[in-house]
Specification:
Elements lengths: L18 E7 L6 H14 L4 E4 L2 E2 L11 H9 L9 E2 L6 H8 L5 H11 L5 E5 L14 H8 L2 E7 L4 H14 L4 E7 L11 H9 L3 E3 L6 H14 L3
Parallel strand pairs: 1-5, 1-6, 2-5, 3-4, 6-7, 7-8
Bound molecules: adenosine-5'-diphosphate and magnesium ion (MG).
């Protein structure tokens, strides 16, 4: 699996090396896009050059739609390109399954090369994975390989609800067993809080030592950006 070398930015001496962060999560629908977009806005507000990219997106129609992750991220970062996910597939299933159904051959190494080129010139490059940590990007690669191949740091997004302790600790341990250490966890307050909401962060930090940031729940992009400002500090930004 993987096999690509970490990003080598030595040729771009005019630019400082971007901090590349792969955003993954415990599941689909947990808030990865919200957190990535909010972080992109926080970085912009702090005067950083930021690019936010969805490499593989499924469930896309033939026309680009405003609610697609890749489009939401481009809007949040203000980047010209890419304006949408690098690989857009129709069926709302895992990328390699969607690709097979469409008769598309996924070029993982090509996507990694494209990502390496796209992050040049940014201070912060945010890359949103698909699904959870072991969701396949291709039948041979997961987000763990992508993080390794990009020399990226990893942020885990999860919901602050009952069940999240096991899901989040599993994701963190899995990353660490593959020598990819997550920088931290962003916990998103669920639409319907339960008795565990508010107490999970302490449990996750206690069990793993990973820093956990409690986000707010808001549809206001400015509030989201403010809420994730502290996470920028985890990346020295
Ligand atoms: N902190 C939040 N506040 C308000 N809505 C949120 C928040 N996080 C996620 N959502 C909403 O929950 C849904 C799923 O979030 P999303 O970021 O798309 O998840 P993922 O990228 O993990 O699939 C979206 O409708 C999103 O707007
Ligand atoms: Mg998403």
């Amino acid at each position: 699996m993987g096999g690509e070398q970490p990003v080598n930015f030595s040729a771009q001496s005019a630019w400082s090396s971007p901090t590349v962060v792969v955003v993954t999560g415990t599941d689909t629908g947990v808030g990865k896009t919200w957190a990535t977009a909010s972080l992109a806005r926080a970085a912009r507000a702090a005067g950083r050059r930021v690019v936010a990219i969805k490499p593989f997106e499924t469930g896309c129609s033939s026309q680009r739609a405003a609610q697609e992750d890749g489009v939401v991220l481009a809007e949040a970062s203000g980047q010209q390109a890419p304006a949408e996910a690098l690989v857009r597939l129709r069926e709302p299933v895992a990328p390699p399954e969607a690709a097979e159904r469409e008769g598309v051959v996924l070029d993982y190494n090509g996507v990694v090369r494209e990502l390496r080129a796209l992050v040049i010139g940014s201070d912060l490059a945010l890359i949103e994975g698909a699904g959870g940590v072991l969701s396949p990007l291709t039948w041979n690669q997961t987000v763990i390989d992508l993080a390794r191949d990009l020399g990226a740091r990893v942020l885990v997004v999860a919901q602050d609800r009952l069940g999240t302790i096991s899901h989040t600790v599993s994701a963190l341990k899995l990353l660490s067993w593959h020598d990819v250490r997550a920088t931290g966890v962003v916990l998103i307050p669920p639409e319907h809080p339960d008795a565990s909401t508010g107490s999970n962060a302490r449990a996750i930090t206690g069990l793993t030592s990973a820093p956990v940031h409690l986000a707010v729940r808001s549809r206001d992009p400015a509030v989201g950006a403010q809420s994730l400002k502290e996470v920028l500090g985890w990346f020295g930004l």
